[in-house]
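User: For my dataset I need records formatted as: sequence, then structure tokens, nothing else. Please produce one.
Assistant:
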Amino acid sequence: MAPPQSPSIQSFFQPETPSTQPAVAAQDEDDNGFTTTEVKAFLYSTPHAWKPRIQYDDIPIGRLAPGPRCVHLVARVVNFYDQPTSTSNLPHPARRCLSVLVRDDTGMIKVKLWYLKVDYQLRLGQLVSVWTTLISGAETSRSVSITVQNAACTIDIFPERDSSCYFMVQADEDQRTLSNTPLGYSRDKQLPGLMTLMGFVEGGHDTATAKVLLCVKSIGGRKKFTNKKGVVVDVVHVMVFDDTCEATLALHGRIAKSAADWKASYTVLLLSNPGLRSDKKPTLSINANTYADVDPCMGEAEWLRAFAHRLTTREVVHVPFPEGVFDVQAAIKADVRVLFTLAELDEYIRENPSEVFMGYLSVLVLEMNIITMQQRGRMFCTECCGVPLYANTTTTICKQCKESRALGINPRLVGTFIDETGAISSGKFIFSREAWEQLLARPAEELAKCDGQLLRYLENRILFLRLTLLFGWSEKVGRLCVCCVQTH
């Protein structure tokens, strides 16, 4: 039997197993000491795992100054487009450059976003965060658009190459209130350059600061067409309107995808310096000179959204007077009584829509429809089972439920009211029972018993009569409520 062998140094090491991979990774062609895997990991690293490694200062755009500084911005996208660049200007290995114009409540800045693999899916109105280490001065070239000239500085970043900068689209959970107040807006005065759509089409587009506030009416399907350069791009036509007229908004290229997030009769757009092409119907466009605010935080936007909602809502034929909302006796005996014109009242309600207040109006009755409504059998009205009910009596039977219903005086007995500054169309006032008796000089029951001759006399007596109306406004009601009527 052979004696046992003494342990050797080799027995303390495990035998190496052959590997299917080469022991040494291949180096790149320049032989600079880095492997091909290391080079690709640096050049093509995914930006989604990015985390800030240094301290960035949160600074509003209006306080930025050119120079090196680690800055973090939170702003809204108001315009973006593919910037044409030559091959010599591309930083290696960038493929394209996306010009993004962003703004907060203090200013505007242009972000030149270079990219290779990441396809940034931007939308107008999105809330974005930008991290950078260098702020450049504003572009001063003659070819630079008017909108970019309004930007105080420029940011040039390539997140896929430079790990110290980054561009991220945030989840908008603040109901579009953060960084969404238009530049130059104040509750005390109108936004500079703001005009109606009709005023813009009829010559206002020639001004450098033209702005129009529009509501989306309908959104067309996405189509493709070939532009002058032979490139196939997307186009979406959006119908927009305000209280004066309507137009078509054409969205081309990348920006066309923004319309997917908009809602008809709800989304409000504030367009500054939009393009205009007037054929049979005006067509607006968003170009490099335009910036667009989506659902801006301003009183005019809320008014336009409410106006659009009223257009899509079936109008109730008879709105009962709200009880317990207005203190009529206190308003009559008040030491200070405010007399509004229709223009002043419209402006005040737009600025303070949620305020409940009372005041006086001095108006002229321009139209009366008592005889017309009596001949049509519509002097009194109400609603039951979702169906309007009309009659020349104060009660009637609903044909749906067969129940007896009390009717109120049809508000369209009185037509248009005017004063020196404006007009209110028929049926927009809500008269109280006392106001009707003061205007017609009789209660509703006696009005139903009047013959045609007496009704014609009553109509001629009220026509072109100067009236003083004690009214009340409440946002919950949404209409002017007439509490008392005084004749002159």
